[in-house]
Specification:
This protein is of the alpha+beta class. It has one helix and four strands; from the N terminus they run ββββα. It binds zinc ion. The site of zinc ion has 8 residues, from loops.
Length: about 60
């Protein structure tokens, strides 16, 4: 599928990407590493804190 995406924790390219659109309309990518089970969010190539994302998803439209 996509290449070049590597886990910043273990350095492997066993990363699964899931694209999501948040309630506020912004697109984010949920990334999960198969190998070390690291998880992170990515928006426009920028990693997001889980905390700030929870903030966004809790906002009701
Ligand atoms: Zn990893």
């Amino acid at each position: 599928m996509s290449d070049g995406l590597r886990c910043s924790t273990c350095g492997q390219d066993t990363v699964i990407e899931i694209e999501l659109t948040l309630p506020d309309g912004s697109a984010v990518v949920f990334c999960s590493c198969h190998r070390c089970e690291s998880k992170w969010w990515d928006r426009d190539g920028e990693q997001l804190d889980l905390d700030s994302l929870v903030d966004v998803t809790r906002r009701e439209p």
